[in-house]
């Protein structure tokens, strides 16, 4: 009887302790974009959260199979976003500004974005805003992002932050199982100790005590990454230009420093950045919309600065990384004589930001042993990089984060073993979400929560994608 019970348990317990094979073993077939080239009709085998193998021949495994002629890309790593603001529709500024201090004080901005954002947070909408914003990123292939600000500075970040995309600020899954362990500091700007406020009526983005906190964190090795908005305005703007000096005086120019924007920086500044190993994130669309010009990235690259690409936010930048890639490619072709190739842009959205954030041992490329953060996209062009920078949001057919299929066509999600889905319209195409991955409830419930609250501010909910 004991022996029979043991045999019975060996069989049944194995079945009970192991999720269905279809849930955690996925075999993707397509044109795999790897750091060493494209594997035409290759195979990516995913087991649980990790990529087990990337091969030319079909591996002999039991798994849910998705066979396609699509491209398979690594998920994007977005180092510059303000996702909770992405519930708002596009904001068309009434004028071009000289620097960010101007528009952030403008009444039209305060009325249409800043005040409504504060009101939504006050009415406990953070988790709805977070789900909407993370999905907006995910459906364009972003699997890791930075910039979700906490609803209350003195309270722990809500647990809804876990799930969907990896949040570099609060929870990536790389540094333990609880939120708030991430070695990342994200500063909005600089007004360090001993310096007057940048504008008479603007108290500054970094009070002296915060500057001390950041400095100690950098010196003690607490941070792997120190991200700071800097020199955001016209290239010749005095405020924008002065901030690189402030950064250096505050001892914030370090190998872990990532400068966001840097529009006011010149060749000598880029040379100093390169010498110390600081990096730069370029957000061209938002810069052009607000200031009429953007960072001299050709000079930055010429000086050897490590350069990543990110969308800033959807009110004045792109809706997500995929849209910013398209914008940057058009900009490079028309304004920079093609000085930055589509392959470089792809790297600036994947391997480069993963390297900057010191997470490239885990994500940013498709290789054995990496986490399974990947997406599939229809093949409309023979060149994988040209395909990417000319894509429409509806070309994305499947997005997987940490081995979990989160978004895609209903057919793909079902093939990948997902059992419960929710329909979502992206452009004119029907797509689906994995219901189990939605940690804060259904997408339709999130929309139903946000819509009337925004309507009370005379604002429409922003689009989940912009179609072209
Ligand atoms: Zn920004």
Could you explain how this protein is built, in words?
The chain has helices at 2-17, 21-24, 100-105, 107-122, 126-138, 208-220, 238-249, 267-276, 284-291, 297-302, 321-335, 342-349, 351-356, 384-389, 410-415, 443-455, and strands spanning 25-34, 37-47, 50-55, 64-66, 71-74, 76-78, 142-145, 166-167, 184-187, 225-230, 257-261, 279-282, 306-309, 374-377, 396-401, 404-408, 421-426, 429-434. It has 468 residues and is α/β, with parallel strands linked by helices. Strands 1, 2, 3, 4, 5, 14, 15, 16, 17 and 18 form a 10-stranded mixed sheet that branches. The chain has a 5-stranded parallel sheet with strand order 9-10-11-12-13. A 3-stranded parallel sheet has the order 6-7-8. Helix 5 crosses helix 16 (443-455) and helix 11 packs antiparallel against helix 12 (342-349). The longest helix has 16 residues, at 2-17. The N and C termini lie far apart (68 Å). The structure holds zinc ion (ZN). Residues 80, 82, 229, 260, 312 line the site of zinc ion.
């Amino acid at each position: 009887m004991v022996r029979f019970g043991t045999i019975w348990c060996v069989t049944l317990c194995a079945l009970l302790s192991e999720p269905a094979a279809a849930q955690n073993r996925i075999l993707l077939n397509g044109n795999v974009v790897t750091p060493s080239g494209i594997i035409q009709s290759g195979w990516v085998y995913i087991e649980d959260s990790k990529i087990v193998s990337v091969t030319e021949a079909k591996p002999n495994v039991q798994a849910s199979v998705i066979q396609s002629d699509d491209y398979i890309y690594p998920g994007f790593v977005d180092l510059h976003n303000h996702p909770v603001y992405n519930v708002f529709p596009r904001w068309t500024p009434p004028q071009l500004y000289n620097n960010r201090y101007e528009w952030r004080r403008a009444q039209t901005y305060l009325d249409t974005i800043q005040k409504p954002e504060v009101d939504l947070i006050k009415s406990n909408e953070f988790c709805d805003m977070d789900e909407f914003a993370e999905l907006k990123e995910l459906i364009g292939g972003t699997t890791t992002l930075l910039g979700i600000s906490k609803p209350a500075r003195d309270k722990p970040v809500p647990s809804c932050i876990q799930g969907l995309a990896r949040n570099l600020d609060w929870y990536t899954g790389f540094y333990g199982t609880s939120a708030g362990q991430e070695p990342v500091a994200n500063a909005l700007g600089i007004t360090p100790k001993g310096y007057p406020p940048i504008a008479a009526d603007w108290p500054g983005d970094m009070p002296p005590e915060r500057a001390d906190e950041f400095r100690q964190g950098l010196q003690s090795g607490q941070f792997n990454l120190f991200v700071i908005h800097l020199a955001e305005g016209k290239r010749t703007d005095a405020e924008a230009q002065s901030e690189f000096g402030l950064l250096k005086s505050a001892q914030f120019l370090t190998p872990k420093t990532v400068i966001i924007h840097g529009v006011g920086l010149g060749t000598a500044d880029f040379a100093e950045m390169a010498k110390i190993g600081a990096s730069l994130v370029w957000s061209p669309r938002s810069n052009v919309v607000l200031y009429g010009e953007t960072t001299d990235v050709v000079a930055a690259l010429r000086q050897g600065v490590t350069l990543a690409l990110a969308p800033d936010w959807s009110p004045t930048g792109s809706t997500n990384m995929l849209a910013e890639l398209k914008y940057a490619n058009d900009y490079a072709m028309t304004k920079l004589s093609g000085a930055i190739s589509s392959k470089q842009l792809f790297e600036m959205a994947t391997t480069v930001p993963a390297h900057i954030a010191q997470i490239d041992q885990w994500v940013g490329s498709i290789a054995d042993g990496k986490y399974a953060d990947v997406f599939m996209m229809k093949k409309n062009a023979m060149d994988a990089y040209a395909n990417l920078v000319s894509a429409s949001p509806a070309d994305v057919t499947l997005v997987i984060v940490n081995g979990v299929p989160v978004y895609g066509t209903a057919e793909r999600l079902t093939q990948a073993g997902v059992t419960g889905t929710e329909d979502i319209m992206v452009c004119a195409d029907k797509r689906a979400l994995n219901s189990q991955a939605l940690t804060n409830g259904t997408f339709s419930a999130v929309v139903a929560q946000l819509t009337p609250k925004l309507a009370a501010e005379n604002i429409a909910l922003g689009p989940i994608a912009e179609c072209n």
